[in-house]
Amino acid sequence: MGLLSRATAAVRNVQRHHPDGTVVVVGHDSVNRVLLLFALDLPLSRYWHLQQDPCGVSELFFDNGSFVIGSINQTQHLSGL
Q1: Would you place residue 64 in the very low, low, confident or very high pLDDT band (cuts 50, 70, 90)?
Q2: Is the per-residue pLDDT at 81 higher than 90?
Q3: Which residues make Cβ contacts (< 8 Å) with residue 26, sequence separation at least 6?
Q4: Dihedral sign, CA of 43, 49, 53, 56?
Q5: Using CA of residue 70, residue 12, residue 56, residue 46, what is the dihedral sign?
Q6: Phi, psi (5° rounding) for residue 50?
Q7: How many other C-beta atoms lie within 10 A of the C-beta of residue 55?
Q8: Residues sharing a CB contact under 8 Å with residue 80, sequence separation 6 or more, in sequence order
Q9: Does 62 have pLDDT greater than 90?
Q10: Which class for 18: exposed (0-12), middle (13-18), buried (19 or more C-beta within 10 A)?
Q11: Cα separation of 20 and 42, whole Å?
Q12: 16-55: per-residue pLDDT in tens?
């Protein structure tokens, strides 16, 4: 089973168990990129087109069967470190 199928299966599992909740998922930059591509309905060939810094925060919302992107790779919380 590839990274895309494992990551999307995990997200679907979270959605199934927490349909109305807020859930924080922490992942490696590779998992984050793949999930963002999936949410944006982009092909895996765009993998390197998404910047993912260490400790970057992306927000994905699930609404009426679709993903809504709130933010991608936010790092302002790291300023001053």
Answers
A1: confident
A2: no
A3: none
A4: negative
A5: negative
A6: -110, 120
A7: 11
A8: none
A9: no
A10: exposed
A11: 26
A12: 999 888 999 999 999 999 999 999 999 999 999 999 999 9
Beta carbons of 42 and 14 less than 8 angstroms apart: no
**Residue 13 has what pLDDT?**
94
DSSP string, the chain: --HHHHHHHHHHHHHHH-TTS-------HHHHHHHHHHHTT--GGGGGGS---TT-EEEEEEETTEEEEEEEEE-GGGTT-
* 60, 67 Cβ separation under 8 angstroms: yes
Residue 23's pLDDT is what? Answer: 93
Q: Closest Cα to residue 52, out of 79, 24, 75? A: 75
Amino acid, single-letter form, for residue 15: Q
Quote the distance between the C-alpha of residue 78 and its chain's center.
Answer: 19
